[in-house]
Amino acid sequence: MSSDPQFEHIYKKFHPSLMSFAVYLTRNKSVASELVNDVFLAIWHKRDEFTFDDELKPYIFQALKNKCFNYNRKKQLSTVELLKSDKKSEYNADTPTIVRETKQQLDAILNSLPPKCKQIFMMSRIDEMKNKDIADLLDISIKTVENQMTKALKIFKENFKTT
After folding, report:
1. Average pLDDT of the residues in 2-29
2. Which range among 14-28, 68-82, 97-111, 135-149 shows the weakest confidence by mean pLDDT?
3. What pLDDT, on a 0 to 100 scale, did the predictor assign at position 49?
4. For the chain, where do the domains classified as CATH 1.10.10.10 start and end?
5. Cα gap 77→96, rounded to integer Å
6. What's the rounded Cα separation, in Å, for the pair 71 and 149?
């Protein structure tokens, strides 16, 4: 490959944050590295179609996000297939109905959140990340993270029904 100074600039500028984002989404550094490189390779092959400026950033992050989600989906499908082939357990514990219904209700509310709000909520509450770390990783302000968390908690409070 010949050298392209604009491409090198974009690579050096976005590679670290793309790696952090991919590692967060895949939970695997080597897979993340491979996916980030795939995105840059695709950009290299289509370099004549792009203007290498800051407007390329959303495209790069969306492409990486899609690759990570596809990877996770394939990984999840292969895990499900492995589980199907496992022997059925003889242990049969009944999960209390109220626990199952509560989980279903919380999952439904979580899935009803807007995508960005859901992502920030999960990073905060499930992954136990600090607002500053979330803001740095997603390249948004801490205030935006706080606003999205307030929005998510309000939606949970309004929609969660206890019996």
Report:
1. 84
2. 68-82
3. 76
4. 97-156
5. 28
6. 27
Q: What is the pTM of this model?
A: 0.47
Half-sphere exposure of 59 (CA within 13 A, CB side): 14
Domain with CATH 1.10.1740 in the chain: 5-85
Q: What is the pLDDT of residues 66-124, one digit of tens each?
A: 888 888 888 877 665 555 555 555 544 555 676 777 788 888 888 899 999 999 988 88
Q: Which fold has domain 97-156?
A: Arc Repressor Mutant, subunit A (1.10.10)
Whether 150 shows a pLDDT value over 50: the answer reads yes
Query: Cα 108 to chain center, whole Å?
Result: 18
- CATH assignment, 5-85: 1.10.1740
Please provide the DSSP assignment of the chain as one string.
----HHHHHHHHHHHHHHHHHHHHHHS-HHHHHHHHHHHHHHHHHTGGG---STTHHHHHHHHHHHHHHHHHHHHHHHHHHHHHHSPPPS--PPPPHHHHHHHHHHHHHHHHS-HHHHHHHIIIIIS---HHHHHHHHT--HHHHHHHHHHHHHHHHHH----
